[in-house]
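ok posting inputs for the iron/sulfur cluster job
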Amino acid sequence: MAARRKARLAVWKFASCDGCQLSLLDCEDELLALAGELEISYFLEVSRAAVRGPYDLSLVEGSITTPADAERILRVRRASRRLVTIGACATAGGIQALRNFADVDEFRAAVYARPEYIEALATSTPISRHVAVDFELQGCPINKVQLVEVIRAFARGHRPRIPAYSVCVECKRRGAVCVMVARGTPCLGPVTHAGCGALCPACDRGCYGCYGPMESPNTASLGAGWRRLGATDADLRRAFRGINAGAEAFRKAGEAHES
Ligand code: SF4
Ligand code: SF4
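and the output
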């Protein structure tokens, strides 16, 4: 019987801090276990070898912030049978999407000595705004167990089993005390996608929303809950304008608290 061809994996970087690629590197043992069915064909952060496409699965980290990258992602899409975005930058525009609420020219002038040499778009947008995406893996950075599940699922031809519930479920599962109920500390957990294992509530802090909106977030109800704890419109706006400020549900929730 002919041996089954290995799935060809490519990893691409756009505007990002590389943290999600590092999460992939952190999967050493798990990737070794998949070595029989997966070939890493293109991953410039770790290898000088770059095998030409097409690729069976492309993992894309980062957002679109320059005209050149808006072109490049089209080529990546054409070379990829399946394309999965990884991390808050790729799925929501990342922390750099804060420019979407301000004037990018002002930022450019404040940061660079010669801003005229910097070519940047007025907004930072998720990859799905530019090309079709087969799956979005949220988080900043992504959870390595969830990442391995995504790679394994696409290599084997089925949908990844990633829970769409909120951080509150993870919080209860690990037996953490609810900081909202017990201490009156505002927490984004009820509207945030699971994946971090309720890291901050377990350390007695409110959730910052690093994993972006859960499947059906009730941000209005959460806002009312925060108000009962004394939060102002400015507090709520700031909370939703974090790493996932560009995610649709959080963007709208932030706008709802514009003064
Ligand atoms: S999602 Fe977070 S960890 Fe991943 S590349 Fe963006 S900023 Fe870095
Ligand atoms: S601490 Fe936050 S994440 Fe945990 S149960 Fe309470 S509201 Fe939900």
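notes: The mean pLDDT is 95. The radius of gyration is 20 Å.
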